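Quick one - first record:
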Amino acid sequence: MSTYERLSVTDRIFLEMETHEEHLHVAVCMIFDAAPLQLPDGGGVDFERISRYMASRLHRIPRYRQRVKFIPVEGDPIWVDDPTFNLHYHLRHAHLPHPGDERQLKRLCGRIVSQLLDRGKPLWEMWVVDGLEGDRFAVITKVHHCMTDGVGGIELLGNLLTATPTKNFPEGPAWIPRPMPDRRQLIRDAISRRMQAPVTLTRSLLEAAREPRSAWEGLAESLRGLREAGTYTTHPASETPINQPIGSHRRFDWLALDLARIKEIKNRAGRTVNDVALSVAAGALGEFFELRGIPLREQKELDFRAACPVNVRTEDEAGRPGNRVSNLIVKLPLEERDPLRRLERVHETMSELKGSKQLLAMGAVESFAEFTHPSLLTYFARMNVEKRSSNFVFTNVPGPQSRWYMLEAPLLELYPVVPIMPMQGLGIALMSYAGGLYWGFNSDWEQLPDLHELVLATERSFEQLHEAACALEPAGTGERDATNAG
């Protein structure tokens, strides 16, 4: 029997917002110890063995063998099995030229994330990169955002990697693509679905009538969330040098910090890891703008905001493909140069946002989409970004604290890549893993030719905060860590 799945409203928004300049894929650059996978002749890692290993794991990720198709007339996107799927197209082998340093790897990653994924094939790629100095190799994975978000990406990696070294592995089960639905079936199903919409609405109204107080309270909270989210569009953030029209080329850079030292700041100040990370980023961006000649201390009205994706999955939704994410808009005190005072102000802002209904906005949007056309919501999502509801994306994804492996090769470091949005030349993604907090800086090639200066400023901001926090008496274990995941 033919089969297909509709994209969710959020997944569809990520698919439809993509343009030639605005690439909406997420990525990660992983660095492994090459010694366990080296060929005997020293010609790099055993790519053929990695290929066979990948083939044995694909059944764990059905989306990797599916592509997007569109329903005739209606135009809604759906997932269908790709009968022409070929792993050799998606899994690629590259080699860095001598000396194979990290600067070359960063440039390669920037070029890879600058290229759109082919919409006619499953929306992912994986690049195995040989020749990295220090007897290491890299794997760069790129997946369209309509397939997964930050937390989903961690689950995806957990299906490709293992928690223990693996030498021998069985072949994966045979895969037979399910037939695609024909045009008549898709049109018939679309008509049936549209005809069911009034029935669905009536059922919802009847359920609300049984518990009117609860229904009105839920509706009021959802409307409050939409109103809060809309406020950031009607009152745009300040214009900065990183909020210009973006092009199609990207720069990528990174920074690794010791998670134990970050937790030391958290414990001494009685804050959260996410508070510390946002405070470090605010300090770095403040210094970076001053290096650009922007006197922040004289701009008391600067309204600089981070869009922080937050995981809203329920326990029942764990492991499901797609996006379950909403946004928090967080104002950052870039003008505050005292590191402890800046941390306190970030913490106060995050505490205030705990009572915010912003996270309900996406759920309200998804419900509303059932009774209108989702493309209308894509238009509003794009307008929300272009009207400068925020200045950049900042996402912090909690990863595993135990070591992961590709076959016998241990994963040493991993640097996430978040896509940059229209009128936003910068995106910062963090991922914790095995005792480290890894920062990935993705930027527009033209707007941030000095991206590495921001990376260095981030390192200085962290050291200043750590030094100031170490002068404090420990405040206990601090509050429960609140990490966002987009």
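second record:
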Amino acid sequence: MNFRWLALAGLVAAVPAFAAYPEKPITIVVPFAAGGPTDKVARDLAEVLRKGLNNQTLVIENVGGAGGTLGAAKVAKAAPDGYTLLLHHIGMSTAPGLYRKLPYKVLDDFEYLGIVNDVPMTLVGRANLPASNYGELVKWLEANKGKINLANAGLGAASHLCGLLLQQALKTEMTTVPYKGTAPAMTDLLGGQVDIMCDQTTNTSTQIAAGKIKAFAVTTTERLTTPGLDKLPTLDESGLKGFNVTIWHGLYAPKGTPKAALDAVNAALKSALKDPEFIKRQEALGAVVAADARVNPAEHKKFVEAETAKWGAAIKAAGQYAD
């Protein structure tokens, strides 16, 4: 009997199957409808992320509903094998404040893989709105109290959060019109069925450039440098001192996912965030690709923990909850 062969065979058998990760397609769950800003980020990211994952296929699965909590819950309960990931935005940190009965624990039920980008938001309105700049918009809002329809992509969505803070800052209430995703909300804004919306540049920049909607201001503390958005004033400089809402996206995996898979995905993510084409695409949409410590899992988690505390206080003050 060839004992040397047996010993070698035993060694091969002892090598964990995970060493070849990934061996099959990876699913990235996007907890919002197809065509929205988070979906766009996920699809752009998937194109470059696969290069660092043996060119394996990455499948985008849209699981919208309940402000992103349905998709997040699906990933939290998925098999922790490295083949189901979650691409989520700021809603990851606002859900604990918005939902009394959240089906997962944000800080306990996920593995953190890194922040992807930061996305400014824009205050926009229907094309035939009788206001051409922010100053005129404020006067129009004052003159039409009780008649203004403010669209958003649903409870917990970035547009909902921005709209919530906007109403607080302006000290005025608007009729909130929630949609099942940003795409249908934008469709009705384009059609003039709603008046205004506060949404990410990844969803508004193309429509603004085409003149299909009006843009009044950006939500960052500094003006943007993106062509087409660079002349817009900030809400802070326009009178809403301290107003600052930036949406970020992060990548997650179910708790308990093997370290080999987490390390592989994080390494692929860091490489993707340096990809010139990905950076170019994100910049064209007004987004800034992450290049700081938050691309590391531990710092990503610390950041989300701080954001959860911040937004929890703001949501509590507004008194807006979901069952």
